[in-house]
What we know:
The complex is a heterodimer. By secondary structure, chain A is mostly helical.
Amino acid sequence: MTRKRAAVAWGVVGVLAVMVIWELYKFLGPAEGFVIGAIADQRGSGVMILPRAHDRAMPHIWDMVARLFQSTSGGDTPPLIVPVLTAALTTLGIAAVGWLIGVTVGALLGMVMQRWRLAEWGLLPWIVVSQTVPLIAFAPLLASIGTQIDRAGTIPWPQWLSVAVIASYLSFFPVAVGVLRGLEAPDRIHLDLMRTYAAGYWPTLVRLRLPAAVPHLLPALRLAAANAVVGAVVAEVSIGMRGGIGRMLIQLAGQASSDPAAPWGPTFGSIALGLVAAGSVALVGVGLKNYRRGEATA
Amino acid sequence: MRLRTRPFFRRGLTVASVAAISAIALAACSAPAATPDPGSSDFVPITSIKLQLQWLPQAQFAGYYVALDKGYFADEGFDTVDIIPSGGDIVPQDALVAGDVDFAVAWVPKVLGTLEATGAELTDIAQVFQKSGTLQVSFKGDGVSSVADFQGKRIGSWGFGNEWEIFAAMAAEGLDASSVSITTQDFSMNALLDGDVDAAQAMTYNEWAQILEVINPATGKLYQPEDFDVVSYQDTAGAMLQDAIWADTARLDDPAYADATVRFLKAITKGWLYARDNPEEAASITYNAAINAEAAFPVGPVHQEWQMNEVNKLIWTGGDFGIIDPAAWDKTVKGALSAVNQDGLHLITAEPAASAYSNTYMQQALDALKADGVDVSGGYTPINVVLTEGGQ
């Protein structure tokens, strides 16, 4: 068996394992969950340590898949999978814009921080702190700024652009750090060689630092893609943008009591979305395969 | 290990990190709506209007979609009527204040809160729902059959301004968040079904049907209304007025807008009358609008029919359509003044301005319709809607 086939086989085994564990837990797990510290006669008290396994909380896999091919809202509406795919593509497009913004900003920050140590001292702590800002607090603020810019009329600012900017807020971080570490990766001996050639900053950057940064950069870009998807979905939910997968998820979750399999449609959609996003970045790696020695894993 | 080929430079460092951030904070002013000339008696009739809904298309808004579908807006001289759904991204009263729309559908207490918080002026020109449709639902036998029973119980509430009736009703019983445990519930009814709360908040026309679309594991059939105790806030001191049509108070001085307001109200009255007399068809018109709207994902046709039926019960209580009952208004204001939420916050602290509601325009619309021989009052004879699992 070739390496490629083995990789595919392991992928299938992984998915099957998740499905088996899901159904096994559903079969063996407590239908009403297991709660410790519950006070008698007091609803909702205690801490649930094992989740509920009944059909509303955990529908069977076949029910969830079957639901994908049943009409979305009854009547003549298209099967659920159609709006799921449309919504996933919408979110993918927004996440891609967010990824591009994030990668650009992240790469610039990384280069600036590598170039001037003072910039690194000044910026890196802020970059780290920026990731601790709760997105659900930050998203509506940015959305309302966007609306105000749009209302002012000079620059059009559609709602999806706010979502893309929020996605870029999550995706720039791994790139900034990855580029910084990557550009610092060359051995001293190589840098000294460049110096003996009297090469300045730019030749060193282009001929030595950037090629050496590739093994750090590719995982960073992959992380950025995953972050952009998460950021886009969360932003859609918190600013209530319609059309994307995040909003669809929330909306169908509102019907979860009477139609528990429905919210799993967009859930699968967002999983597929993340895989496609990370997979597309792998294509970038194909073009850079000559530089990928000793790639760090992420 | 960190290696440097050059000593670091000090120049140019302060610029890079701050430039991007300051650019964002530039635009802050929004363009106000054009101010009309109040002196002129001649005006060009408004032929294009926008109505902002408070949620996605569903039978709760059937009258507006029927008026569109049946050409009632066109009959009143409107060439284009935009019915704009909200997915929670647009707050109707904010959109109206900003001048993005001409009219908005919103609950009275929510708007009262906005008016006091922002100092904006809006007028309730038609009270579409005469009664409150909010319920607190619990399983029979759990002993929550009145607001007084909330004491010591875990009570689910949605928040987002949908919770004030609960707190107003509790205040009237001398209860507050210290004696009642208030829990935020999501928009599904799982919190009740899984026993995470003693009683869950539900609207007669939506979540209540959702519960009744679930299979009862004990019987293998759908849950029945008899399985539950239901507290209807309409019967409590906390009852508040809900879906109302709001107009921009300042713009009402513009004769063109005032004229458009009366014509608009005529059209929607006819829409709701049609929905009263043809609930199945009205539900199906709305359902069709909903499945063609962007990303609305409505619950199925049976659920819409149930919703149409319940909404009609809230609208047609015997009086003329849309007239604001001053007693119900005062009760809403009283409740809003007394309500204190679980964070100790008040919805409003002072009576709203007298301009906050007006029957002038609705009365003009009704008189015009009566002159045309339309019967604008009366009750509603409910139809029987048999729910199905999942509402499909």
